Amino acid sequence: MRKEIIFGIALAFASTSAFAAFSDQDANGNGQLSKDEFYGTMADQGTFSDWDLNSDGLIDEDEFNELGYDWDYATWDANDDGYLDSGEFYDGVYTTYDADENGHWDDGEWDDAGDAGILDV
């Protein structure tokens, strides 16, 4: 099942040029990717729905762990209710790769997300 999920996500990303380059995502051209720019890109790709295996609009810990990333589910579950909604999911992804914790991704952080990260296709 895990291989099918990973393949599905990779296929969704590969079928569009949305993840082609950092500069394509940097809508205002300031050399940084804001959360809003990131959210628009990720939401357009259906990433959250790809991880929501039972299509209930939430990601539980089993669904989260299905892809095998070494991330702490409890850290992503900001309201501590045992589920991730889409906001918690995208915040979790964004903060995971915001290495310098300045609230913006630079092209290096974008590359990290793509190099064996969530955007690696």
Automatic annotation (TrEMBL):
Q: Matching InterPro entries, A to Z?
A: EF-hand-dom_pair (IPR011992), EF_Hand_1_Ca_BS (IPR018247), EF_hand_dom (IPR002048)
Signal peptide (UniProt feature, chain positions): 1-20
Q: Which domain of life is it from?
A: Bacteria
* The EF-hand domain, residue ranges: 13-48
| Any GO MF annotation of the entry | calcium ion binding
What are the UniProt keywords, alphabetically? Signal
Q: What is this protein called?
A: EF hand domain-containing protein
Specify the species: Chromohalobacter marismortui
Lineage per the UniProt record: Bacteria, Pseudomonadati, Pseudomonadota, Gammaproteobacteria, Oceanospirillales
